[in-house]
Amino acid sequence: MNEKLKLSANGRKLLQQFEGLRLQAYQDSVGVWTIGYGHTQGVKRGMIITPAQANAYLDADVKTHAAGIYQYIRVKLNQNQFDALVSFHFNLGPHILKGTWLLDYLNQGKWTAASAQMLRFNRAGGVVLLGLKRRREAEVALFLKPDSVHDDLGTSAANGKTATYRVKRGDTLSAIAAKYKTSVANLVKLNGIKNPNAIQVGQLLRLER
């Protein structure tokens, strides 16, 4: 579904900002030996690397953590959402979504509810950390930031194919159905909506003409 998406320069900048560059091994907030931009695999006390090695580790780690997004998320993401989730996974692990409410909300296109869940992952060792709180807030801000390329209805709808629509303030399911010449029943079925009167701002709806 999202395999064609790769971390953008903007997403990489976010990662580097929060991970920070350390060329000598150190122990993170929970005692894990770390180096470069948050790299932990095979790191030992006294290890030293170059900036080029740090970037190579970062590239490999991004691929590892993006795999969780490709595996678990079954709805189309835009670039900002993907970048935010790469940072989220990079910090918490490639399988962090498995069995969570966050994953359920993501796969229902309930972006506002999903972002609220993301903010809850701000603890290490059971303690809320200011650094994690700030990171989650930055990730959520990026996650909810419109991406003009992917958030528009686009040419697919004009060609009569399946497209998507992001719910805006004041929208109703019946109004959306009328605008895109479909039915409420069809939108409910396509999107697994349980309550047609409870769509959320930011929710991504699949459309079919």
UniProtKB/TrEMBL annotation:
InterPro entries: Bacteriophage_GH24, Endolysin_autolysin, Endolysin_T4_type, Glyco_hydro_24, LysM, LysM_dom_sf, Lysozyme-like_dom_sf, Lysozyme_dom_sf
EC number(s) stated in the UniProt entry for this protein: 3.2.1.17
Keyword match RNA-binding: no
Gene Ontology terms: biological process: cell wall macromolecule catabolic process; defense response to bacterium; killing of cells of another organism; peptidoglycan catabolic process
Name this protein carries in UniProt: Lysozyme
Keyword presence, Hydrolase: yes
Alphabetized Pfam families for the sequence: LysM (PF01476), Phage_lysozyme (PF00959)
Catalytic reactions on record: Hydrolysis of (1->4)-beta-linkages between N-acetylmuramic acid and N-acetyl-D-glucosamine residues in a peptidoglycan and between N-acetyl-D-glucosamine residues in chitodextrins
Enzyme class, broadest EC rank: hydrolase
Molecular function as annotated in GO: lysozyme activity
Matches recorded under PROSITE patterns: LYSM (PS51782)
Family: Belongs to the glycosyl hydrolase 24 family.
Domain LysM: 163-207
Keywords: Antimicrobial, Bacteriolytic enzyme, Glycosidase, Host cytoplasm, Hydrolase
